[in-house]
Design a protein that fits this description.
- The protein is of the alpha/beta class.
- 40% of the residues lie in helices and 17% in strands.
- The chain has a five-stranded mixed β-sheet, with helices on both faces. Strands 10-9-12-11-13 form a five-stranded mixed β-sheet, sandwiched between helices. A three-stranded antiparallel β-sheet has the order 1-2-3, with no helix packed on it.
Length: 424
């Protein structure tokens, strides 16, 4: 036990506490980052603020610091987040404040709709604290704020395209849903960004539409070839690559309406899916007369319709430069788009014959399998029917997924054909 000396212990005054008394600390940040001048903020400051505000420990791609005093007072930071999947675009969150007092999340009337996909903070003291959606819908001031934010974003992106092209390309895979959605929703944004839209080729090169057309001006005229499934449509992509034609990736859910927008805005520009057109590049000029070609096409069309039991099957005979392709399916681009649009907007219940798919089976006349059919007068044999069914199924497999029944039949037929080979 410590010895008492005049009310003190040997260690010090009686009852004294050794721990240091701490000053009270505020729970909130009295000077949040968005209230500061951009010149006084570092990249590390912006990243820490993002992680703290949105509990997201992935670093944002980049940000835009808004700081305006006239004709209205507005401060804020918009962050472009890195997306892991297509569905991450649904997770945006922009907080609206009035003099650092929280008002609402994602008020569409103040924030441009396409930017609701982002994360950020907007502080506007000129808006009332009890702001309501009905008030904002009829308030011209809210529209001015929305237009200002849209302009700042477009200016930032346009500047990156012109002066930081490599960085812009590095961000494109994450940026493009925002930009395309903005172009579809906002006319002024579209006008500023149209020439800054990039197309990513299957080889990983980034080109604007103008750059793509310039690169291919001596090969194809005013067409942009794209794929929405580089694995399923690999045969078509490879055939185009053989003639130095790049295929671009347009496989996001927003790309279908976006393609139509680009065609409407860009003169003499047509987007064609790789299985939607048989370009003259892939065909050889035939030396046979039109009468001979027509007779061969009629003969083989009847044979395939009978073998496949498809009386309405469209067949076209061509001489392709590629010796390895016996047959391929071509889809009418416009009809396919109309069908996809009907599905997208929930019109699948309409008559499917309104916009038929218009598949055409292209047969390569110089391929041995097609010559086998053409040079035979008997198309009723089991072997002939098996070959025609096999050619058709292989063509279908190159552009879409087969039904379980068709795939089962294809596998059985493939095994039967191989058994015939070893038996002979």
């Amino acid at each position: 036990m410590d010895e008492m000396v005049d009310g003190e212990t040997a260690e010090g005054p009686l009852g004294a506490e050794e721990k240091e008394i701490q000053e009270p600390q505020p729970l909130n940040d009295v000077t949040p980052l968005y209230t500061l001048q951009p010149s006084n903020c570092t990249d590390e400051d912006y990243k820490k603020f993002y992680q703290k505000t949105f509990i997201d420990f992935r670093e944002p791609l980049f940000w835009i610091h808004l700081n305006m005093d006239y004709p209205f007072n507005l401060k804020g930071i918009l962050y472009f987040p890195k997306l892991n999947t297509e569905f991450d675009t649904l997770e945006g969150r922009i907080k609206l404040y009035n003099n650092q007092v929280f008002v609402a999340d994602n008020v569409k009337e103040v924030i441009p709709e396409y930017l609701l996909l982002l994360k950020g903070v907007i502080d506007c003291p000129d808006l009332p604290l009890n702001v309501s959606r009905s008030f904002l819908q009829n308030d011209g001031f809210a529209k001015k704020i929305s237009d200002y934010i849209s302009k700042k974003v477009a200016d930032k992106l346009s500047g990156m395209f012109k002066t930081q092209r490599e960085t812009y390309e590095g961000f494109w895979d994450d940026l493009h849903p925002f930009i395309k959605f903005g172009a579809l929703k906002d006319t002024k944004f579209k006008e500023k960004m149209l020439e800054n839209i990039l197309l990513k080729t299957v080889k990983g090169e980034y080109l604007s539409v103008s750059e793509y057309k310039e690169k291919h001006k001596d090969i194809i005229e005013d067409k942009v070839y794209y794929t929405n499934d580089r694995v399923q449509q690999a045969q078509y992509i490879q055939m185009l690559e053989g003639h130095n034609v790049d295929t671009v990736m347009l496989d996001h859910s927003i790309d279908n309406p976006f393609i139509s927008l680009m065609e409407a805005e860009m003169e003499k520009t047509q987007f064609v899916r790789v299985d939607g057109d048989l370009t003259d590049l892939l065909k050889e000029t035939s030396e046979e007369s039109e009468e001979v070609l027509k007779a061969d096409e009629e003969k083989i069309t009847n044979a395939f319709r009978k073998a496949l039991n498809q009386e309405t099957l469209k067949v076209k005979v061509e001489t392709l430069k590629n010796d390895d392709v016996a047959g391929m399916i071509i889809l009418d681009e416009n009809n396919r788009r109309m069908q996809e649009m009907m599905k997208m907007y929930g019109m699948a219940g309409l008559d499917p014959n309104m916009f038929p798919s218009e598949e055409t089976l292209i047969l390569n006349k110089k391929h041995p399998l097609i010559q086998f059919i053409l040079n035979s007068d008997d198309h009723d044999t089991e072997l002939h029917n098996m070959v025609m069914a096999q050619v058709y199924d292989l063509a279908v497999m190159s552009h879409k997924t087969m039904t379980p029944e068709a795939m089962t039949a294809f596998i059985k037929r493939s095994n039967d054909l191989m058994k015939r080979m070893i038996a002979n």
